[in-house]
Amino acid sequence: MSIFGEDNKSNYYDQLLNFYEYLSHTHNLQYRQYSGVFQVMERYGPQPWPGIKVHAPLSDKIYNVLMDQNFQHMMINREIDGIRIYKEHDPKQVTFYISFHSIPGYKKLLHIFRAHGINIEPKLQVHGDTHGSYVLLNKMHIAHDIYVRYSTDFYDEKRGGPKIDDSMWRSAADKGHPQIWAVSRSYLIMHLYNLNYKDNSRIITFLSLIDYDGIMVPIPNIILAFDKASDELVTYNILISKIMEYDLSTQENSRRFFESVSNHPEERLRAFLG
Prior knowledge:
alpha+beta
């Protein structure tokens, strides 16, 4: 049962709006309000501005998270990048913005979730064959009605290709298409020459890992093209927002490249998300 009563759910939004407007002005946070939505950002980052988004409806528990002093201190101390809250009820009514450089804040957010009775248990869709596996990145649930998705750019500006544009990644989470795969090293080795990288209904990625204050963060690298004649692989690294070219024509080059590809995307994602 809602703390405000089932017929008065809008009070969640109104109280949060009033509180965070005050908090923003008091602590120099970036506050913006539009019709039926407000946003509080600790700053506006570089362009592009990649990271993860955590989406949830505005439930009793999420309201309590947002009013928790520990979370408010995270906002004041710029430990996550910001929040956006809509008045209308929706599975994405609340968004937590966490850039890759604010990843420790994600782990702190999970701790506050747990303190308010939210059971964190990542659920992933994993597929594969005898040669390896791949994980669906479209919408990665970490609780019953809370999920995480990667964002190539919080600004959602056009970046030179549909697979790079965040609008495509948002569509993948909202509508289920395109499908975004994170393939294992062994799967990519076996299927490198027969995967269709031109098909915009499927985005094929592999995960590389960065160590951020002891947190192993899986970073998707989007495969944009592969030239079978020259063995040149073209990718886009979401973390550094840069197109990379790899010459796989020699055994040494190929070995170095594949060593950077995670062979256990499911395990890496579960450890990171939870």
